[in-house]
Each structure stands twice: as C-alpha cells, then as structure tokens.
Amino acid sequence: MQKGSSSHPWHDLDIGAQAPDLVNAVIEIPRGSKVKYELDKKTGLLYVDRVLYSSVVYPHNYGFIPRTYCPDHDPLDVLVLMQEPCAPFSFLRCKPIGVMEMMDQGEQDDKIIAVHADDPEFRDFNDISELPQHRLQEIRRFFEDYKKNENKEVVVNDFLGREEALRITKEAMDSYIDLFVPKRARA
C-alpha cells in the first residue's frame, strides 16, 4: 500500500461536530461475535486478535471513538447499544450515556457506554441510569467473564452517568490533540 493512499479510521475519521455529546464510533466487533477484532494502529486495518476462549459473545457493538487517546495508548473504547449488529469497520453516530469503570490486568480500561443516535429503540436514552438493571448486569458479566478462560483478570468497578462519560471523552479528545496534532495546527 502506498503511503498516504488510504485513510486511517483512528486519525482520519472526524469525531463529530457535536462531540463529546454526539460522537462517531468505529465498530470493530459486532454484537453477537466471539471474534476479538482489533485496530492495528500502524496500518489502520482490523486484525483478528483471537477468538474468545469462553462461550460468551459481545452483547453489543464494540469499537472506538476516533481522535481520542487514553492512558492504555489506545483510542477510547465504546460499547454501542442498538438493535442490530454492525459490520466490522462501519462507523455510526452515537450518544455517550455513561461509562463502565474497568481494570484489565491491573490497568485502567474504562468503556464508554453509548446508544446509537439513529436507532429508534435506543436513541431516547440520555443517561445510563435509565437503562434496565438487567442490561447493565449483562454488560458487567460479559466483561468480567470474557477473559477468565485465558487466566486474565478483569474487574468491573462501577457504572457512572452521562456527565462522567462526557468528561472522560473530552479528556481523551484533549489527550489526542496533545499527542498527535502539531501545535501550529491547533489554531
């Protein structure tokens, strides 16, 4: 592939004009999948990291928010609630409604919980507190269990509301700018 001839979903897709209230998300893993796809940060392509070792599947579409950067050196993770699975590498508009505080092998790895902005079943949710408790338990259980058969520890601490999700998203946006956008281009 010739350098500069393709776009990179992390760096070239806009986060959205209304961020952090409404953001674009790139879906890596569709709802219902056992395949753990991951963004190759160098090439911008998806690669198959592994097939999950346990009998669980992703409960919702999972991906990242472009032009964000987190302490784990990755873009900000997002779990997007919607009725249908999305194809890997599709992108959509979503509304952050909360955050799941999570530790993955001792490293902070929070997940933004968002709803698809154009799905009539989910678009009217504005805060994670509005979701049924069962939905939150399903999400918690998936992340607590999905690495157990690999002898890896994941701890889900708490679910926090929309304001915390917006704060974390904004912080990740600012970190991305600090790291990747030259000072002269920030004006």
TrEMBL record:
Coiled coil: none annotated. Its cofactor is Mg(2+). InterPro entries: Pyrophosphatase, Pyrophosphatase_sf. GO terms for biological process: phosphate-containing compound metabolic process. Its EC number is 3.6.1.1. GO terms for cellular component: cytoplasm. It holds the Pfam family Pyrophosphatase. The keyword Metal-binding applies. The keyword Metal-binding applies. CDD domains: pyrophosphatase (cd00412). It catalyses: diphosphate + H2O = 2 phosphate + H(+). GO terms for molecular function: inorganic diphosphate phosphatase activity; magnesium ion binding. Transmembrane segments: none annotated. Keywords: Hydrolase, Magnesium, Metal-binding. PANTHER family: INORGANIC PYROPHOSPHATASE (PTHR10286). Belongs to the PPase family. This is inorganic diphosphatase.
